[in-house]
Each structure stands twice: as C-alpha cells, then as structure tokens.
Amino acid sequence: MADEHPHNAGGGDGIRTFPFPVDLSLLGVGVQVGPMGAGRTWHAQAPMLRVHRIDFHVVMLFTGGPVRHMVDFAEYEANAGDVLWIRPGQVHRFSQTSEYRGTALTMQPGFLPRAIVEATGLYRYDLPPLLRPDPARYDALTAALDQLRREYEDATTLPLSLHTAVLRHTLTAFLLRLAHLAASSAEAARSHQADTTFTLFRDAVERGFATNHSVSGYADALGYSRRTLVRAVRAATGETPKAFIDKRVVLEAKRLLAHTDLPIGRVGAAVGFPDAANFSKFFHQHTDLTPAAFRAELS
Prior knowledge:
- By secondary structure, the chain is of the alpha+beta class.
- It contains 11 helices and 10 strands.
- The chain has helices spanning 114-119, 135-153, 160-184, 186-192, 196-208, 215-222, 226-237, 241-259, 264-270, 276-287, 291-297; strands at 17-18, 31-35, 53-54, 57-62, 67-71, 74-78, 83-86, 92-93, 102-107, 130-131.
- The strands form 3 sheets. Strands 2-9-4-7-10 form a 5-stranded antiparallel sheet, with helices on one face. A 3-stranded antiparallel sheet has the order 6-5-8, with no helix packed on it.
- The protein starts with 16 loop residues before the first strand and ends with a helix.
C-alpha cells in the first residue's frame, strides 16, 4: 500500500473532515463508483451546502451543467463533458443551486500502491481541479469509468481478493488517462515541466508553511542554492519561491478566517505569525483587506 501524505487533512482549524465511507462501498472495498443525483448516497455523509474537507479522492464526470463548485476558495463552473478532481484535504463546498448529474468516483487513500500513486499524480495539488477533455479524451475516460463501474458492481463472480485486484487495475487505467489529461492541459503543462527541485520545494512548503516562510531556509534544507531554487520555481510556476510560499500561507489564513471562529491572533499564529500586527500587515499586503474585513465580508 502507498505511504500516503494527505494534504493538510485534519484538523485543528474547525473545518470538519469526512472519512471515506467504507460502509457504503460494495463489499467494503476502498473505491466507489456510481451516479450523482438527488436522493443518492454518492456524497456520503458530507454536507451538500457546507464547507468541509474529505480525506479521500473524488472525481466527478459531468453529463449535465452548469455546476458551480468551490474548491479552496476558487469557484469552478463545470458543464457536460467536464471533470472535477478534488484531492484529500482540499476545502470544498457543493452548490445549492446546481444539479449534479453524471458519475462520481471516490477512492480511499492507500487503495493503490505507491508506484501508481506517483504515476497518476494523485497528490499534484498544483494542478487545477477542473479539466475539460476534448471529445476523444472524454469518450476514452467515459469508457474507462464505465468499465470500472461494471467491475465495481460485479460483486459475485470473483473472490474478494481477486475482485479487489481487478478494481485496482481497472482504476489505474482510468487514473492514467485522467493524469494524462491533467498534465496536457494549458496550465498543467507548465507545471508538468517542473523538475525534481521544484517538486521537492513544493512538498517541503506543504509540510512547513505554517512555521517556515524563508526561501533560504527551504533552499538550505533541500541542499540547493537560493539561485537554483529561484530558477526551478520560476520555470515551474512563473513566480518566485517567496510568492509561492506566501500564496500558500494566505490560502490557509483565508480558510481559517472564513470557516472557524478562531481569534485573528490565533489564526496568525497558526500560519507562522506570533505577532497579530505582523499577520494583519502581511494579510493586507496580499489581499488588500485586513483579516477582520475579510472575515466580515463573508458573514
């Protein structure tokens, strides 16, 4: 099984995290495939209208639309033929005005081996959630997902161990197609060119952004010169390492301000600013709003 590394999934910030609903999966396997729609259990116990996290993957392939869905404070509009891929730990919210139609795939972390996790980019948080395949790729994705659904629903012709093995192989085929789609989209193509230096930096920031905002600190920890790190991050993202770190800190601060009742001083401390005044100054520089004003706008 994979040695998983969920993305900030958990806790202390007041945003509820929902686990993979094993009890709703046929035979208790670590994957579910089924239709979206009112009255169905495709979203498990997660609230349809409230911001929350999940600790598993969700892939929605839409046959209708438009559907507006928030992922990490960005609103995405999906239409028929689009795919929305939400990864563990991402904050998201369903739309109360949209009708979700299509097929939803959910997958428990640890269901696939590490080699497949890496090959399919399951934890590429730098890639956009919304994907728009061309007709040929959409048809191929649909066929692969339909095959996965048939295997998932066939719970009688194989022993459980073989049934699970077949599901892993069929799921891998679908995810490889999905990963290729993500990597060949306009935004993903630039990120896909990122070398090992950027990948290591990105992962280090994800682990340490709450306490370490120093470009030199990351460069030293990774064994690179500051200049090498600047070149790698700029080639991969078009921005400086400092901007990349600050963006991640601002996102987490927004999450905490919007979806918890933590005092502003504690929000600042949670993202690496023990001094509330310094946090307010930093937040204002990056959003043109004070933390209090940002929170008030959402109330």
